[in-house]
């Protein structure tokens, strides 16, 4: 079957509004926001149901047409972008955006893959429940893509990654069959946990079309604090003390350097400096409780007071309202935006054992300075779960293109430190096209053979997101 004939069959299934072939219409689906990856495709297919997805996949399997599944296209590693050769169709799940069910007593929500994360958060709140996944792209990112990349975000410390928030999945397999794993059970001890094969698989094993998500009680009290700390070591010790004192009520714990804050103050309107004196490092933390209680507030304040006495903190401010809390969290958001105004920025999404974060920062900053004198590290991120965004702004006055041309070289320098400390080169962004060539290095021969065997079993013809994750 020719590609043209296959597209005619697909058009008959999804309808005229379900397929895009005009270059201008397809353009938003063929590049990612950083501009590092741009591909081509004969068509962008937008099915509106699981049945349509299954029919499209079956046609592609018979015609030998590769498929790139795509959610909100917020990938940072090129995982949702086709290659330049233009052989793959893009299969967008954006029209599959129904919330099928909310079971408040079972604390579950059943959703289709194209539902945007903010819609899930709002629906949970309307039902007096919490869906805790929260990240910068939540207004665009779709749950199918978040599941396929096992996304993280700011609340992993307390609630876990996306993998920990999924009870069941519906998946279209490479031959067009549909696996119905939409179980709402907390306990199900009947063989292999198949859903976990597809969570974090980046669409290389099957196409997630729906999911059963875990919900949680809505917090009734939230305390947000911005704390000056003398060092990353002090931040890690402060985290341990807050977790112990609060009964593990810390939901978020973000670390940022002074350079990060300086960039945000310089370039992003609305950013404030919350404390009177500068500090080399800061922590932004949030603790939540199920009931409104003066005792909870006192517990947090006492723990912070003891941190001052132990010289783990030098200053702090606690938000006195929701508006003030949002203002503090705006700093964290502004850090991401501000870096682009300082020239080229080489990004690293690093995962390190929490106890070794400070060691990583010391070793990595020294290593990149040796490789590129004048380089400006801007580390920040979810230090509570060991995830640091170790971003590296170009030296002042450097040529941006020449600097960015050294991306792979500089990242390799950082990776050497990560490997030494038993860390990971991808904490929450995935592998995609960007990091796939490192997989044989970081996985080891036995583990890598196991990964390839799973791929060969579920996608023997290699038509699902080819060239992603596994080289």
Binned, the helix content reads 25-40%
Number of domains: 4
CATH architecture call of the largest domain: 2-Layer Sandwich
Rounded to the nearest angstrom, the radius of gyration is: 23 Å
Number of helices: 16
Briefly note the CATH topology name of the largest domain.
Answer: Uridine Diphospho-n-acetylenolpyruvylglucosamine Reductase, domain 3
Q: Provide the CATH top-level class of the largest domain.
A: Alpha Beta
GO biological process, one term: respiratory electron transport chain
Family: Belongs to the FAD-binding oxidoreductase/transferase type 4 family.
Cofactor: FAD
Protein name: FAD-binding dehydrogenase
How does this structure look, described?
Belongs to the FAD-binding oxidoreductase/transferase type 4 family. Keywords: FAD, Flavoprotein. One of its GO terms (biological process) is respiratory electron transport chain. Residues 37-218 form the FAD-binding PCMH-type domain. Helix content is 35%, strand content 20%. The chain is an alpha+beta fold and 471 residues long. It folds into four domains: 3-92, Uridine Diphospho-n-acetylenolpyruvylglucosamine Reductase, domain 2 (2-Layer Sandwich); 99-217, 2-Layer Sandwich (Uridine Diphospho-n-acetylenolpyruvylglucosamine Reductase, domain 3); 221-339, 2-Layer Sandwich (Alpha-Beta Plaits); 343-429, Alpha-Beta Plaits. The strands form four sheets. Strands 12, 13, 14, 15, 16, 17, 18 and 19 form an eight-stranded antiparallel sheet that branches. A five-stranded antiparallel sheet has the order 5-6-10-8-9. A hairpin with a 5-residue loop joins strand 8 and strand 9. It is globular. The relative contact order is 0.12. The model has no long low-confidence stretch (mean pLDDT 93).
